[in-house]
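Posting for a labmate who doesn't have an account.
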Amino acid sequence: MPDTVGTRAKWAMMIPSTNTVVEHDYWMMKPRGITFHAGRMFISQPNIKGDDDFADLVVQIRAALEGAIRDIMTCQPDYLVMAISVESFWGGLERAREYIKSLEELTGLRVATGADACRRACEVLNVKKIALVTPYQPVGDDQVVNYFKDIGVETVRVRGLKAPSATGIADIDEPTLIRTLRDELDGDDIDAIFQAGTNMSMVRLADEAERWLGKPVVAINAATLWHALRDNGFDDQMDGFGSLLREH
């Protein structure tokens, strides 16, 4: 139910307690009359120095989700944005669909996830082959690659930057990402580059990189916002955050 500041919509955003980027990115891109309201999922052990730690992070997210949703629903949002990407890819396409359905049943709201936003972006951009950059350990990269495979998209190259902690994902700087995009991921054999990991800010860099590389560079936070807008029938377009929000 819109209010005096959320005149068009009020959106709940589910965010890990360790994340310091996603709220910044969303408010930087904020469309007129839409407000974002954070429900933070408590992460007690943020270290992700290996595959086991990383898998445990997903377990912590699942355990904290229902309580965070209970709290955020008291502001009476009219849409739910899952502002965390790894959990939305985990288990492939079938499990991702079940995940969305379970959230819809729990909240009574429509739901946007990072994985579903990437699926929709691939359709709109006519993407069949990608390169992928993440802050994850290999077990997380494998989950994202498998999801793209399930939707008919081949991941030609992947670079997991292996952040040592969930909070430390936000420490991955632009020089590192620029080198990764230019020197490790780009090539004539891919249609686009995708980025996962909502605590790794790439919305402005992705927009710039599209001009250097001559192909779509899809940042997860921009893609999920774009998907949420279109899912709600909003046709807002904006410059500075990549071709999805600018052109589609």
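Reply:
Got it, the structure tokens are right above this. The mean pLDDT is 97.
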